[in-house]
Amino acid sequence: HGHGATGPLSLGPAPRRLKILIGLLVGPLVLATVLGLVVLWPDGDLEISGPGVDVRRGTAEVQDIGPCRQDVDGCRLAQVELLSGPGAPGEAEALLPYGDAAPEVAPGDRIIVSYTEQAPAGEQYAFQDFDRGQPLLVLMIVFAVAVLALSRWRGIGALASLAYSLVLIAVFTLPAIMEGSSPLAVAVVTAASIMLVTLYLSHGFDIRSTVAMLGTLISLVVIGGIGWVFTGAGQFTGLVDEGSQYISGIAAQVDLRGLLLAGLVIGALGVLDDVTVTQAWAVWELADVDPDASPR
Description:
The chain is an alpha+beta fold. Helix content is 54%, strand content 14%. A five-stranded mixed β-barrel has the order 1-2-3-5-4. A hairpin with a 5-residue loop joins β2 and β3. α1 crosses α4 (183-203) and α1 crosses α5 (207-233). The longest helix is centred in the C-terminal third of the chain and has 34 residues, at 256-289.
């Protein structure tokens, strides 16, 4: 079993019977996860209606700023060069926010503009936010380099795990919830799908990662159960801010209380990943130090 001069068990092969037992436990979970993805996968027929859904967005660069045509105190109008989105490439006028708390926009700033086709001429474009694409891209590159410098080849697996998680949430989780599927079921399938891939990519394909995966899944089920009980007991509605109210307005089929639970489950996954892996490694080492110790 790898004791003695051959080194600790944590660095050697696991007992064959343990591998078989873990395989029998993991196999049905993998199958259930795949079936969950198949059953809950969005069909692409989502239709959203309501205020604001016809608004499209693009990026622009501010060329000049002047007063609005209307005689409104503080109102400002920006001459912008459209870089992407409706009307690009080209030039347009975009309404800027005004008031004491309005952001300061200056010529040369890259901004995100919203476009409403039904609006009067000259008022179709409006400032939405600053375009942070370039600084965030730089930050992402710095982050990736730091991960690779600290973790070397294992860092590549961690970055691949992160990319896989984001893609899965974008193409499966969000569309499935918006189509009216149970947010809690979607969250559990999402968490299991992420876990099955990211634990092995980030921590290596071995028996300890598999044990940690089982611990993570059990913990997620417990968290989902406790969350379900107490969101009901506490009469949580999921209507916590303007965002949730907007969702209920454009997609009434979404269960907001379930959405709250889904966020709880997926949010817990990031914490449980490190906790269960650390616990699995620690218990493995303790068992190697004292092979005769009881499970307790």
